[in-house]
Amino acid sequence: MRTVITPIQMRFNDIDGFGHVNNSVYNEYLDCGRVDCLNQIPGIDFLSGTDRLVVVHIETDFLIPSYPGDELAVHTQIDKIGEKSITMTQLIVGSKGETKVKSRSIMSTFNINEGISFVLPENWVFALEKFAASVLEM
Fold this sequence. Notes:
Thiol Ester Dehydrase, Chain A
């Protein structure tokens, strides 16, 4: 499985009153990872135009707090390609390799003009499968 690694720049306003990254901010980090992953799939724009992929479900486990100065990266991989959706697993990892957050999300197809989902087109499935199965070249 291919894993896309997206470095995250922590911002001052990401920190809450307890002195660590607020749980709600992690969803923004995960969004950055999803967008980065999908943008790396050649030939298909999943996030604009009439036919898109949109987030419909997120499960998140907060394991270890992150503090100012921590170096974070989102690790994203596509685990499952369904009829109308894809499932991604994401980790937010610190610079020492510690998993701080684990998340699973489902993105569904969505036509913005009709307001309905649709079966993943064959060219999308082909591109997603090829990308997910590939290994990053080192």
